[in-house]
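Input.
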Amino acid sequence: MEQHLAHFRIIRSYMREMAKADIDGRYAAEFAPLPDVQEQFLPLFCGPSGCTRTFQNFAGLVSVDAAHLKGVAQSKLFTMTTYDANRELAILAFGIASSEDAVTWHWFLRYCLECFPNVSLRISDGAKGVESQSVRSLLDSHRCAASLCARHIIHKNLKTAKVGCKDEDLTLLWKIVRSQTRDRSDALLF
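Output.
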């Protein structure tokens, strides 16, 4: 446990060194004193200049997600990803925060939209907090539309309805979700 806390304590100096070495990148780390620990980071954002320069005018679709970090960290990992010209996954930015709520989503998306102002976001998560007024206002101010991931929408609705779904129905549903055009999705439906 103490070793993990020691790693947390050096993050601030690591982020400062990253910012010095990569002056065009976007780095942010905020810290707060805790009673039993000298310091622990709250939110952290990392947007290296290689990504921000390469994708600066990118107007395509990017995915934003949050995942739970297990173990001592007990935090949330936020990522912003897209595909590059070689169809390889490119991590544009990442952040770590203590929770997934409206405040941390607003914080992470604000930094992402500062670095990549022309993107169209897909929130590939259940997105706790994304529906808040502050997050929606931020997205609207950047003329950015956020859409939720089809997987989360489908599974949430199936869970809420408490009904089973045949495998062939799910297969058809995913073909419709993945269809590239309205004509193709209509052809699958009718």
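The two ends are 58 Å apart (CA to CA).
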